[in-house]
Amino acid sequence: AAQGAGAPATEARLESAEADVRDLRKELAELRSSRLTEASDMQRAFTELRARVHEERSKGAEEMARVGHHLQTLDDDMDGIRTRLKEHSPEALEQSEAALREQIAALDVQSSKAREQARAEFESNLERLDAALRKQLEKSEAALGERVGALEAPEGAPAVPDEALAGIREQIAALASRVD
């Protein structure tokens, strides 16, 4: 009977232990779920933090590049100012003036040579043109002489009026004056 009375007590303890195990399993599942959520939240926070760090690094790199470019520009400006100061020093101005004087002298020599060459070419062209015009005049005079001869009447032919002969002589004189 004692055994019989102990059985319900054991059974009760067993049920109580099973209920405790179920409760522990439930608590464990909740704890796991809570830990997983917490781990997921931590992972998300870590990812966001890493993205922010990367973004800040990029911004920092851009800012450093901008500052570096600005410093380089300032350096270039300073070099330009130094160069301009050197260019405007009395020694530099004297050197510039001397160089300009040399260039002007060289240009004067070149200009004189070019003028002489142009004058020689002009005179040569003028002489050739004059010779060509004289030849043309000689040909024209010869042709006009032939025409005048043809117009002067041989004996027995009717006489050419003096006005026609005077006009031809005027043309010859006009051509001669153009050549001279």
Automatic annotation (TrEMBL):
Listed SUPFAM superfamilies: Apolipoprotein A-I
Region (Disordered): 1-20, 54-75
Ranges of biased composition (kind: Low complexity): 1-11
Compositional bias of kind Basic and acidic residues: 54-66
Full protein name: Chromosome segregation protein SMC
